[in-house]
Each structure stands twice: as C-alpha cells, then as structure tokens.
Amino acid sequence: IRDSYCTPWSAHLYCGLREGPEINHVGPLSLNLHSAINAMPLSQYFRLVDIQARMALKADASKFFLGYIWWLLEPMLYVGVFYVVFDIILDSGRADFLPFLLCGKWPFVWFSKTVNQAANSIIAGSGLIGRIDVPKSIFPMAVVQESVYKQSTVFLLLFIALYFMGYTPDLGWLWIIPVILVQLVMIIACSLIGAVLVCFVRDFSMFISLGMIFLMFTSGIFWDARSLDPEMGQRVLTVNPLAFILDAYRQVLMYDTPPELGHLLLIGVGFGVLAVLVLAYMRSASRYLALRALTA
Fold this sequence. Notes:
By secondary structure, this protein is mostly helical. The chain contains 14 helices and no strands.
C-alpha cells in the first residue's frame, strides 16, 4: 500500500478489509469491490475516522516550524487582515466591529476550509482505495473530524477574546451549543456532497472554491443582515442558511439572545436528512466512486 493515508496505524485498522486490485491504467475496469460498511463494525468505522484525523493533524503540524501554533495563529491573521481592510481603511462605522467580525469569520472559515478540503479527499485517497475495500465516506468524514479538533481551540480563543472585550459569559451562552451542532451537520452534508461531485468531475473542486468566495461576501461576515431593509434582511437569513448560522453566533455571544429555534431546527433536520441520503448513495455506489477516484 503506497499512499499518504497508508501508515502502520492504517494497516492495523484496515487488516479486516479485503484487498482490491491495484489500478495502473485507464480503461474499462472491473473492480471486485463490495461495501466495506457491511463488514466493518460501526465502532471501527468511527475509530478509523478519528485516528485518520489525528494522524493528519500530526502530519500537518510537522510540516511547519510553528506546528500546532498555526491552529490559533491562522484564524487570528485572517481576522487581522479583514479588520484592517474593513474597519481601519474602509471605516465600517461599528464600534463593535472586531467582535462582530470574530463571531462571523471564524465559524465561516471552519465551514469553508473543511468543505474545500473534504471535497478532494476521496481523490486524494485513491492510492488506498485501489488496494483496500474501504468505505469512501471515511475520507471526507476524517477531514470533518480533523476540523472539529482544530475548531475546538478556535472556539476557546473566541470565548476568551470576547471576555476581554467586555462580553461576560452567562447561561445564555449555552445556546451556542445547538448552533455549533447544526453548523457541524451542515458541514458534514456539504463535505459529503462535495466529495461525491469531485469524484464525478474534478472541475467541481474549482466551483466549490469559487462558491466559498461568493458565500464569504453574501453571508453577512462583514455586514449585518439585520441592518438591511427588513424585507431584504429576512430574505437573506431565510435563503442563506449559513448567514442565519453566523447571525445566530452573534445573537448568542454578543447580544445574549437565543437563536430562532424553529429556523435552526429546520436547517439541522434538512442538512441531516441530506447527509443521510448522501451516505446511503455512497454506500450503494461504492464501486462506481472507487472507479471514478482511480481513473480521475
């Protein structure tokens, strides 16, 4: 097994899975693959996802001199750049623009970076897919799990920063838990969809990246949807679920106001159903996805 995903830990976890043929050419192929989810216990599936995520974190940190410090330094630099542009140079006119930006930008970066990386994860794992019958959903799910570890430190930094800016934590901040969970469900669904689409046509990775730029400017990161015309503001929060999620972070952490639970539940259920449907498709189309990944 020759792949970045293949290390001694993966060899141990994959030992119960049957090997598949190695693919060295493009042409009519017959892959004798069956769905590994049927053979792999659910506990092993999640253990594999978690270990793959933690090993990816270690490998990523080893590439840089500052290592794990980049988990905090990168989001701080993101906010620093946009703060200079939109508040110092363009004069946002908001006295609370920095906490406003923190509550919007950091959750957005979690969404955008995870979906972008997960979209290419199955293609990136094609070397392993060519050797072992492994559930294809493991690859985007491992990326999501990796992002959860990183984002947990970012959220801690966010809470500390808000505290020193005068926002005192209270029981109302507990409303942030369902907001985070719903965003996580959204990230899982979009990551799975992106991974499938890129398996079909590699060009989708470019469209996803461009889509993230579009969302960055239309989801209320640098402007407040509630400051728009009431009808337009409501339309933005209704049509764009990401804009609603970012607004919910601000409502809870800055204004001590619970999110609109009905809307939040609708988003969570909608993306949850979508994620289940995509997982079911990935299970039933495991052979086809393997073929697309190996011949991409």
